[in-house]
Structure prediction request, 698 residues.
Amino acid sequence: MVCCLALAANAVLGHIPLNEYHLAEPDAPQYYVSYSPSPRAGRDNSLERVTAVRQVMRGRGVDAYIVPTADPHNSAYIAPAHARREWLSGLRGSSGTVLVTETLALVWTDARYFTQFENEVNMTVFTLMRQGIDVSIQNWLVQNMPPYSVVGVDHTTYTRSSWNSLQNALTQVNVTLEATTDNLVDIARAAIGEPAPAIPNNPLIPLNVSFTGRRSSEKIAELLAQLPARGVSALVLTALDDVAYTLNIRGSDIPYNPVFFSYLVLRSDLQAPNNVILFWGNGVLPANITEHLSSEGTQIRVRPYDAIFTYLADMANELPIGSTVWLSQDGSHAIYSAVETNGTLNILATLNSPVALMKCIKNEVELKGFRSAHVKDGIAVVRAFRWLEEQVAAGANITEMDLSDKLQELRYEEEDSHGPSFSTIAGAGENGAMIHYSPSREGVQKVIRKEDMVLVDSGGQYKDGTTDLTRTRHMSASPTPEERRAFTLVMKGQIQLATTVFPRGTVGHTLESFARKYLWDVGLTYGHGTGHGIGHFLNVHEGPSWILSGPSATDPGLAAGMIMSNEPGYYEVGHYGIRHEDVVEIIVMNNSSDHPLAKGMVGDFGGIGALGFYTISLAPHQTACLNVSLLTDFEIEYLNDYHARVLATLGPVLKARELDDDYAWLERECAPIRSAAIGKSAPFLLVVFVSLWSYVSM
Ligand SMILES: *[C@@H]1O[C@H](CO)[C@@H](O)[C@H](O)[C@H]1NC(C)=O
Ligand SMILES: *[C@@H]1O[C@H](CO)[C@@H](O)[C@H](O)[C@H]1NC(C)=O
Ligand SMILES: *[C@@H]1O[C@H](CO)[C@@H](O)[C@H](O)[C@H]1NC(C)=O
Ligand SMILES: *[C@@H]1O[C@H](CO)[C@@H](O)[C@H](O)[C@H]1NC(C)=O
Ligand SMILES: *[C@@H]1O[C@H](CO)[C@@H](O)[C@H](O)[C@H]1NC(C)=O
Ligand SMILES: *[C@@H]1O[C@H](CO)[C@@H](O)[C@H](O)[C@H]1NC(C)=O
Ligand SMILES: *[C@@H]1O[C@H](CO)[C@@H](O)[C@H](O)[C@H]1NC(C)=O
Ligand SMILES: *[C@@H]1O[C@H](CO)[C@@H](O)[C@H](O)[C@H]1NC(C)=O
Prediction:
């Protein structure tokens, strides 16, 4: 999915709200997260909401209160229970921070949401602060808060590094940054009869070793072995996907992300089962999960989710003075503070948790699962596109939302489907140019017309893998010359990146401009990143490696077995949007690899190891939208080979299911393209030419 807007790249706040952690580098483009966690807050009662928050602030002696978009786990997507900024301001979308003072209510957001702000927010109550243009929230506080005033923030919604940065700045001007242990917005919500939804605690899903390839006991043993090696007594895992991956359990507490609210602590100073402690729900696991864990040889203790803070404080008292606790840098200030309660422990804060580094390299079973998930997903996508084009051609009124629903319905027909991996982006015509666009049931229902270019970015969660695919199709295969050129240049960039060979350990951002080269050649570009890692039946955006235009501090370097997206685009605001996105597996390159450059490989970078990408997404590109004369023979062959593989893989499945119309559509879409220079009668002419030449040169 989607990436998105780098226009806001210089717009990073002086502090970094938890869920924007990976934007820590000022030049890193943002990956867009589309979600709509709660019904739009009405504009008519905005003042009532803000007044309720001010009242709670006064009671606590807080002069300014920061409401970021974040949950206690630095999740990229948050549950409605944590969507406080949205409730308060009415601004939907993925990014924004509200600051409430006695007299002002300010909303910082980035360029993606400036227009949305005007549409959704009551502007007599709230003032827009444009990130990257107006003063940052940190500088605003420094300049405007009087000495000895108090700025408050819920310390579960701020990472330690964000906290430190803000606290240092405020200390300079004698302003106190205070951690409010209760969330003041939640208190205000309850006070005016709009209580926050409860933190979800949905049923857990055991994930068998036939999907994960590795028992939880093996993962835990590997982690426990790292503790003495690092000289630490305990490891605290705070990211929800880290816990889910380690225990081979999934959930559904956050939309699109099959995770569950929890923490996991591993201790080297205790014996099993006391050395692995899960904080979840009320502290009692259901029988199927206990059985699942014991079938994997895993013994754990379970405590209530909320008990993490007192547990860490108690642990600080139990561990010998000078012991070290391992946290990842994206842990919340609240978690760090709990570990520091006694003041006798050291903290090892790493850029990535050890689980983040384990789970980004997929094992053979996970890779096999990814490929199988992409076959199923390809079937659903082919069926949806065939349906769409037939309907549009017949003059039916198909809206973007109808297409989104159809994709979801067809994905659910596939085995082990667990719904969409993010909110479908189906943008017809000018909507395709809004990179963060997602049709919604509440908004205007746009009908897809025959003359529209439609950008469809969607993905599915399956027990064996997670998918993320974008195809751009013109409903009557007759794009304008500008659309055709952009469609082709984006395709050339995607092929260029897809076929790049690079040394093992190369960081993603050094490859990024390959995808932009052909657009850059003519003075065009796109405002989002080009690739993100993808979790295995986990988050569709998974660190620590990214393919962005700027460096990413967390990137350990690309390695075989990683799964990434390859998604260049081009957007003509007000007219159309184009994005071609595939999921790729990182493979070892040598002269026998399944890669167009394999045969030419004569080295492996002096023993470092050569890597390349192998595209696992299976869905035809609309070759009718290409300007073939802009393609090289290599690119034509690449596309023809890809389409032959798509047909050979998906075709038999469609036939076996007697989906004959879908098969016919796929066969047509996968037909090879020929070089424009040679034309349709090429094989015949070539034979004649070769024969003549042989004759003449004899
Ligand atoms: C915005 O809030 C003010 C103050 O409560 C109210 O008078 C006005 O009607 C609201 N505007 C909209 C568009 O609801
Ligand atoms: C901060 O407090 C210190 C000590 O009370 C004082 O010397 C200094 O002038 C104050 N600075 C500001 C900016 O108020
Ligand atoms: C789990 O996977 C194992 C190994 O593939 C298999 O033997 C077993 O039947 C599976 N169990 C379930 C409940 O699917
Ligand atoms: C720190 O732990 C020690 C040992 O349990 C205890 O005696 C002391 O009171 C604790 N200090 C604080 C500040 O909690
Ligand atoms: C589609 O909608 C248009 C106007 O919105 C209407 O005129 C037309 O009859 C509709 N067509 C069908 C097939 O429903
Ligand atoms: C294809 O590109 C060539 C070279 O830029 C251009 O001359 C030609 O008009 C384009 N064809 C179409 C159909 O857009
Ligand atoms: C090429 O790489 C693959 C994957 O690492 C390996 O299995 C194979 O043996 C290698 N082949 C050669 C000729 O080095
Ligand atoms: C492929 O590489 C291997 C190992 O370097 C070498 O022995 C072999 O001759 C190469 N094969 C070809 C066809 O070049």
Observations:
- Residues 147, 173-174 surround 2-acetamido-2-deoxy-beta-D-glucopyranose (ligand 2) (CB under 6 Å).
- Residues 364-681 form a domain with the Creatine Amidinohydrolase fold (CATH 3.90.230.10).
- The first strand starts at residue 64 and ends at 67.
- The chain is about 35% helix and 15% strand.
